[in-house]
Amino acid sequence: LRVNQEEVPENCSNIQDEEQDSDISKHRQKIAENRDQMRTNVIQEIMKTERVYIKHLKDICEGYIRQCRKHTGMFTTAQLSTIFGNIEDIYKFQRKFLKDLEKQYNKEEPHLSEIGSCFLQHVEGFAIYSEYCNNHPSACIELSKLMKQGKYRHFFEACRLLQQMIDIAIDGFLLTPVQKICKYPLQLAELLKYTTQEHSDYSNIKAAYEAMKNVACLINERKRRLESIDKIARWQVSIVDWEGPDVLARSSELIHSGELTKILKQGKSQQRTFFLFDHQL
Fold first, then answer.
1. Which residues span the domain enclosing 256?
2. Cα separation of 6 and 31, whole Å?
3. Quick one: CA torsion of 37, 41, 43, 48, rounded to 10 degrees?
């Protein structure tokens, strides 16, 4: 209700509506600009971390592996294979990936960059991380054995200084591929948050996020299965006078173990420990 009973000029309400529409329009424009800026930030962060990562891989291959191969008296081929795994293959793959990523990067207007297809194109290639991640615990054990000797500590430090690498120990550098493959889904999830459904890259980013999440899950699952197989092998070796075929011939996972009572024909009973594997008890 109006307090004063005077008639309000007709055009007054029109002016108010126009002002309101203008405010809404400005507000929407501001939201869009903010979202574009956030998308720019995420894209730039992805590009930056990718370039830094390539530098780390190059330093490992040229700074450490190349020097280690020159010193045959200090390292055997098997030792180097255990410590560095397939990191040279990862370096080769990531260079190709970054090259394709750079092509999709829009320098003038980063928020318009369409990088989703690049991830989808290379998704199968990321499977090589599985071998590296599974090998990583063995690499840490082998490296820690060597690091107990002063000559190896000094050697690796000399390699780092010669290559002008940042001040991180070799085990820190060797952890980067494990961290990297886990970081991709997080980066893509962040990018998806600031990509509107109308954006030409939306469907590809969404698909890439799911694909990279699956890659990370697959690597974790393979790692878990290998650990399970290793556990079964150690368990069988620990049993005195083992008879019959190896458990691993039919099974790869221990599902449950516990005490059971075995009832004999004479009504006597014996306590037994049973182990339930996939496909056998």
1. 249-277
2. 40
3. 150
Residues in CB range of 189: below 8 A, 6 or more apart: 209
Q: Is residue 180 part of a domain?
A: yes
Give me the residues paired with residue 259 across strands: 273
For tokens 């501001």, the residue is 30
Q: Are residues 86 and 168 in the same domain?
A: yes
- Please, what's the b/e burial string for 95-134 (b: 16 or more CB within 10 A of its CB; e: otherwise)? eebbebbeebbeeeebbebbbbbbbbebbebbebbbebbb
pTM of the model: 0.75
State pLDDT tens for residues 215-251: 999 888 888 888 888 888 888 888 888 888 888 888 8
Q: CB under 8 Å, gap of 24 or more: what pairs does 184-187 form?
A: 184/119, 184/126, 184/212, 184/215, 184/216, 185/209, 185/212, 185/213, 185/216, 187/42, 187/45, 187/46, 187/49
